[in-house]
Design brief:
By secondary structure, the protein is mostly beta strands. The chain has one helix at residues 2-17, and strands at residues 23-30, 34-35, 40-44, 52-61, 69-77, 83-91, 108-119, 126-132, 145-146, 149-158. This is Gliding motility lipoprotein gldH-like protein.
Length: 163
């Protein structure tokens, strides 16, 4: 019995020390047919105003996703009412149709750069809102329900200058 404790402690230590040391915030929301009016919101607690952070949008898609890119509209709502909006486009597949991102089988996960070295200088809660803005080529109207996106996440990481 005593001989089994050492390997178990070694595995536990390896897992504990290999945790994601850059992560400050990381949350996913499940999506089923992402409606054009559906806003995915993330409430961010107060962050150290003296540090800079890198922001990412994480997207999980499966083979039901029919497009090679993804258009998003994002907003960061500041505690005192200021709002920063961005319209973003991300490549999701290579020209030959091969999915970008990581994962095995049908599900792929893409970590998409959003903003670099951001400082959250206002004290209080921040909110990040993300919605899809996909359109078919040559069509003015937005796609009503976007299939194939299974989860949308938001991640904040420490920058290397914070370490």
């Amino acid at each position: 019995m005593r001989n089994n404790i050492i390997p178990i402690l070694a595995i536990f230590s390896l897992v504990f020390w290999s945790c994601d040391s850059k992560r400050v915030y990381d949350e996913y929301k499940s999506v089923n047919q992402w409606n054009k009016d559906s806003i995915i919101s993330f409430n961010i607690g107060e962050l150290d105003s003296l540090k800079a952070y890198n922001l990412f949008i994480n997207v999980r898609n499966n083979s039901d996703y029919k497009y090679s890119n993804l258009h998003l509209i994002t907003e960061i709502q500041f505690p005192k009412g200021k709002v920063i909006s961005d319209t973003l486009e991300y490549e999701m597949a290579l020209p030959n149709g091969e999915w970008l991102g990581t994962g095995f089988g049908d599900l792929k996960e893409s970590k998409l750069w959003y903003k670099e070295a951001v400082k959250f200088t206002e004290p209080g809660e921040y909110q990040v809102n993300i919605r899809q803005a996909m359109r078919k080529n040559g069509d003015v109207s937005q796609i009503e329900n976007l299939d194939g996106i299974t989860d949308v996440g938001f991640r904040i990481e420490k920058t290397t200058q914070n370490n």
